[in-house]
Amino acid sequence: MRYIITLLASLLFFSANSQDLTGIWRGSFLSADNKMMDLFNLEDRYKYEVQIDQHNKNLAGVTYSYKTTVFYGKASANGSVNAKTGKVVLQELKLLELKMTPESYACWMICFLQYTKNGDEEFLEGKYSSYRETDSSFCGRGTVFLRKVVTSDFYKEPFLTKREKEKQQQRLNEEIKLDSTKIGAATLKKPVNKPVIAKTKPIAKATAPAIAKSNKSAKQKTRIASVVPPGNDPKGIALIPRVESDKKAPSIKTKDLAILPPVLKNRENEVVQTIVVNTNDISISIYDNGTIDHDTVSVYLDKKLIVSKQMLTTNAIVVKLKMDESTDYHELVMVAENLGDIPPNTSLMVVQAGEKRYEVRIASTEQKNAVVIFKYEKPK
Description:
eight-stranded antiparallel beta sheet; five-stranded mixed beta sheet; single chain; 19 strands; mainly beta; 3 helices
């Protein structure tokens, strides 16, 4: 089959101050030249992901092409953008990773895409041509569809993480600058009031009775209650000052913090779905999603390991949950122990909650765990 790298072109509208291509674009490309697949009315479709870093007119990034166990490839790429015409060029620089069957082969890919935006959704779609890596001979054409997304099927490249930190710092600097401008403007508008000098009359000195100072013990503090003279007390007994010795504050015991497993602490934990149930017994079945390619996973329930390094197959890994008002929240984490024969580590989770059935498709990598949250709500 084919390994594809991109030459992106044609945006609907682009300028240095408007649209920024920096980010993750994920979708697929579909071959239009596979006559055997057309004969049986089948699709020769590959999943496709491009991560782009844009600085002014210059682009850099990586591309991923993958199809079950048949093919997987990753390469670095760079390019440029024409702000006037909206055309983008992104070309492969170096092959970084490659896994494929013996009958597969790698190709270079050139895409001519159109940028569109519908609400908050952004798309790149169009056509591509490809050329064999070994001799540059033509090896196919077809269509490409990409959508801008937040998360990667693999992991977010370091250059994207760096750009996000730079943008956060830039926003923070702008907010500080704006606040400083507002404070300065408010100071200029504030009226300057002359000080008012009040005329005061001389105060006559009054003779106050001398008050004797009592000596306090250094070792203990005394608190004197109201003293009633013996003649005025109904029982004729003088009240004696009450002495309180210093006492230590009671110690408060705190619960020991649970030790977070390193695989949960060191990897990104992405919530892929939150499921609200109103039944007590929940059954979770986990299968390999598609071709059995030796994906191995561990499963953590509320930070505790319940399934250790088990391979995904057509036979389900079954997890039971008990939900009620006292245990109304569970967090299930899927951890990829490997990426199988073809990245990423993918699984299908089937949740049976009473009469309701949910299907969750999960992708995890060696940098990112997948989290599914279960919440209980009392039946109405």
